[in-house]
């Protein structure tokens, strides 16, 4: 009997100890899951493919370990799950500080972990490789220690806070080229570049002079509006074009010159992370009047000139390629050989030298198809197949072929576009490609002018004239939202869905810029790079694609600057869904209104304006102290 009681007593003690231990471990789990969780927690949680980490953000909606697929599906069906209406998501975990500059689809750690077999010589490692849903980070990207609200435009063109992008490598490496200089708490941009040490403004004027443009102004009385700057560095070339009413898409990869695009966007200059590799760039054909490469270190002769042919696809009829590089002027045998081969290639492409002076050559693309038709049979590179769509770009491999012009452009001997700024509101000729009428275009322009006016009335208590600079329209249609912002001191990245009508060419024809994208994936930009996101029915589209709306919220938070704004225009159930996440995302509601405020046809739409709060992790606070 005594032994039995002793065993029973011992068992009770063991059970009691296990219960206490369980409670203690549960307390630790809750404590470390708080928004100011420790760095060690963040590091362990951020292992790719961690099932438990993936569940942390969604478990508040009542999911369980055996119901992953159902949980993901429910996040895209707004207001349709019984009992979900009153559930508020309390918090998301915070990513480790090491990931404050995470770009999910351009993450080399992912490439290493997935053991992707990529051809480095073709720059495949700088192209987009997105994590599968189960491998995505489900946490908030923290700002760096000491983060400050960015300096406002136009002052930001010339200086940014060093704590916001704490990388001074380029200032040291390019010290003799005036890319950037560290001065106390700021990084200053004198306007220099690898080829234009003494300022982009003088270099730009010299290009205009070479082309005999009026008053040495590169905009050529409004006829040259959109520019593609490949290998742009910190985008000073694009920065100094803005004063001439020229909009440049500045492109560079996340390569050894790390953070160059991040610096460009922090300065308030249009820029995009990308590379001339194996896939077409996310821009439609005939988008740019000028392409520019200044010491961009690209091998234009590789793979039968495929990269130069990608530029050719992007250039408008009569468009220019300004090339400043040793091959254009050096007299050593290697450079002379490259020059001869490159000259022969562009001649077969029907380009001609428009000007050549000092260290720069400017080629011009033909205005019509005549030269292409007159080439000898078998001439390389060939013309593209008749069934090749030059505007199909999302995930489409580059082709080493020449895209010919449409019948319209051939007859018009050019794009037939009005000069800027008239082209912003003039119906573009390519409307006919979509069966759109001039009247539809004009109504759309007027509709969005009225909507944007109402947006600004709702935002006015929160913003001043220089509060916003970098704006993204997440579903742009014909670009009328951006057109309505012409008189604001902002620029707009217009995003067109990859699976709908590629109206991005209409946007470029209006003198605006943008890219094709799928919001089922992360965008090719650094965290904290946009001041305003406009999401017109984007969440409804995500629901139809059965992608995760929760992932989209986290992505929007990633690319939005602290104190930045989101305008959601969608159905009521979407707004109700987003409201559940405000606390977890550190967002706050600014205004809610139904579409009757606009008196337009989208009678069921609701406007929801949100502002992102500024916050720091406990590690960031300690580091900044």
From TrEMBL:
Enzyme Commission numbers on file: 2.1.1.-
Entry protein name: Methyltransferase
Entry-linked Pfam families: Methyltransf_29 (PF03141)
This protein's UniProt keywords: Glycoprotein, Golgi apparatus, Membrane, Methyltransferase, Signal-anchor, Transferase, Transmembrane, Transmembrane helix
Membrane topology note: Single-pass type II membrane protein
Chain ranges passing through the membrane: 12-31
EC class: transferase
GO annotation, biological process: methylation
Primary site of residence: Golgi
GO CC, one annotated term: Golgi membrane
Protein family per UniProt: Belongs to the methyltransferase superfamily.
Region feature Disordered, mapped onto this chain: 60-83
Subcellular location(s) of the protein: Golgi apparatus membrane; Membrane
UniProt-listed InterPro entries: Put_SAM_MeTrfase (IPR004159), SAM-dependent_MTases_sf (IPR029063)
GO molecular function, one term: methyltransferase activity
